[in-house]
Specification:
421 residues; alpha+beta; binds zinc ion
Length: 421
C-alpha cells in the first residue's frame, strides 16, 4: 500500500508505545494505521473529520448543558423526599467538608469534559476557516492530557449502581438530566474518537521534512531521533542540549525523563494511601439518629448479604481488584525494565495498556458516594455523609493513574532489543 516516495517525503512515525519507526500509507476515510510491531493505532481517518468532530462536540455540549440544568434523580421514602441536580453531587460534598473530593468529582464528571468539547469546537472551527494556529496548537496540546481525566462513562455506571442500591429502600425517579447525561457520555466518547491528532497537526502546521537516512523497522532512539509526544512528528535529538519539536515546539525526549523513578515514587504513595482508603469508612449513614460507618470492604459485604450480589461484584472489581492489580502490574513492569523475565515485550505492552484502560474505572465508588451523599439528606431521619476513606481512595486512583502515565512503555522494548543483541 505504501508508494515509493523519496525518504524525505514519506510520512514516518515513531510508535509512542514501542518506538519503532514505520511509514504511514495514504489512508482513506474509515481506515487506520497500526504499528506493525505492537499494534498501537498511529493514525485514523474519517470522512469530513472537521464537520464530524464539530457536530459530535456541539451535540455533546448541548446534552451536557441539559444534564446540568434539569433534575437528575429524585427519591421518595416516607419522610425522605429529595430531588437533586447534577452539580449537587459535587456541591453537597463541599458542604460535607470534602472540598478536594468535591473538586475532583466536579472536574472529572462535568468541567473537564465541558472544556474539552469547547476546545474541540474552537479548534476545528479554526481548521475549517483555515486560520493559521490561533491558539489551536495550545488546545491540541491539551487534548491528550485531558483525555484520561474525563470520566462521564464511569459516572454513569456509578449512577446506575446508586439506583440499584436505592431501589429497595425508596421510590426512585429518574429526571430528564439522567437521560441527557447518558446520551452525553456516549457522545463524548464518540467525540474523543473522532479527533485524529495526526491529521489535525498536519492541517494546523503542515508536515515538515523528515530527517534523512531514517530506517523503518528500527527503534527511533537508536537513530538519534524521536517521535514528538504531542504531534507525532519525527525530530532529531541533540546529544548536548534540549531539543524542541520543529512543528509544535514541545520539548523532545528519547524516553520520558526519570520515568522509572516517578513511577516507583507514585506507586509507593498509592500503596501507602491504600491503607487509610480501606481502614477508614467510605460512607457514614445516619438512620433515625443512629450512625453506621462502612468501609469499602464492609459496604461491599453488606450489599452481598442484602441480595445485591451483582453490584457487590462490580464494587469488588472496581474498588479492590483493579487498584491492587494495577499497582502489582506496574511494579512488575517497572521491575522487568531492569530485569528481563519470560514475558515478551509485546505481552508486557499489552499488560501496560490494560492497566491504563481499567485504572479510571476505580473512581466508580467515589462517584457512588457523591451521588448517595447528595440524594440522602434528611437530617437525623436519614442522611449519608462521606467518610475519610473517600479522599484517600480518590488519591489512590489518581496516583495510580499518574504512575501509569509516568511509566514509559518504550523502556520495555529497549530491554527486548538488548536481549536479542
Ligand atoms: Zn509500536
Ligand atoms: Zn511536535
Amino acid at each position: 500500500m505504501t508508494t515509493q516516495q523519496p525518504t524525505k517525503w514519506r510520512r514516518l512515525r515513531a510508535c509512542p508505545a514501542c518506538d519503532m519507526v514505520s511509514a504511514i500509507p495514504v489512508l482513506r476515510p474509515g481506515q487506520h494505521a497500526n504499528c506493525p510491531r505492537c499494534g498501537h493505532v498511529l493514525a485514523r481517518r474519517y470522512l469530513h473529520p472537521v464537520q464530524r468532530s464539530i457536530a459530535l462536540a456541539a451535540s455533546a455540549l448541548i446534552t451536557l448543558l441539559m444534564a446540568v440544568a434539569f433534575p437528575f434523580i429524585s427519591v421518595d421514602a416516607g419522610g425522605l423526599d429529595n430531588q437533586i441536580e447534577l452539580p449537587q453531587t459535587a456541591s453537597t460534598l463541599l458542604q460535607s467538608h470534602q472540598p478536594v473530593v468535591a473538586f475532583i468529582v466536579a472536574c472529572t464528571a462535568i468541567v473537564l469534559p465541558g472544556l474539552y468539547l469547547v476546545g474541540v469546537i474552537a479548534m476545528q472551527a479554526n481548521v475549517l476557516r483555515t486560520v493559521p494556529k490561533a491558539y489551536s496548537d495550545v488546545i491540541a496540546r491539551l487534548f491528550s492530557q485531558l483525555h484520561p481525566w474525563m470520566m462521564a462513562d464511569v459516572f454513569m455506571v456509578a449512577a446506575l449502581i446508586s439506583l440499584v442500591k436505592l431501589t429497595g429502600m425508596a421510590d426512585v425517579q429518574l429526571g430528564a438530566s439522567f437521560w441527557a447525561y447518558c446520551v452525553f457520555a456516549l457522545l463524548l466518547l464518540m467525540t474523543t474518537r473522532s479527533v485524529d491528532i495526526d491529521w489535525l497537526w498536519y492541517r494546523l502546521a503542515g508536515e515538515p521534512e523528515t530527517p534523512e537516512d531514517i530506517r523503518c523497522g528500527m527503534n527511533a532512539a537508536a537513530q538519534q531521533v524521536t517521535g514528538c509526544a504531542t504531534c507525532g512528528l519525527i525530530n532529531h535529538l541533540s546529544a548536548h542540549h534540549p531539543s524542541n519539536c520543529v512543528r509544535c515546539g514541545s520539548v523532545l525526549h528519547a524516553r520520558k525523563p526519570h520515568s522509572l523513578q516517578f513511577t516507583w515514587a507514585l506507586l509507593l504513595t498509592a500503596m501507602i494511601l491504600y491503607i487509610p482508603a480501606n481502614a477508614y469508612p467510605m460512607m457514614i449513614t445516619t438512620s433515625l439518629g443512629q450512625s453506621h460507618a462502612a468501609t469499602i470492604i464492609g459496604g461491599m459485604l453488606e450489599l452481598w448479604q442484602h441480595g445485591s450480589q451483582p453490584i457487590a461484584a462490580v464494587i469488588f472489581v472496581a474498588s479492590v481488584l483493579v487498584p491492587i492489580l494495577k499497582m502489582l502490574v506496574l511494579i512488575l513492569l517497572s521491575w522487568l525494565v531492569k530485569h528481563p523475565g519470560p514475558l515478551s515485550a509485546l505481552q508486557k505492552t499489552r499488560l501496560y495498556h490494560l492497566t491504563e484502560f481499567v485504572g479510571r474505572w476505580s473512581m466508580v465508588d467515589v462517584f457512588v458516594v457523591a451521588i448517595m451523599v447528595a440524594l440522602i439528606q434528611s437530617g437525623n431521619l436519614m442522611s449519608v455523609l462521606p467518610g475519610p476513606a473517600a479522599l484517600a481512595f480518590c488519591a489512590v486512583v489518581i496516583t495510580t493513574m499518574l504512575a501509569a502515565m509516568a511509566f514509559d512503555p518504550r523502556l520495555l522494548w529497549d530491554t527486548q532489543g538488548k536481549q536479542h543483541d
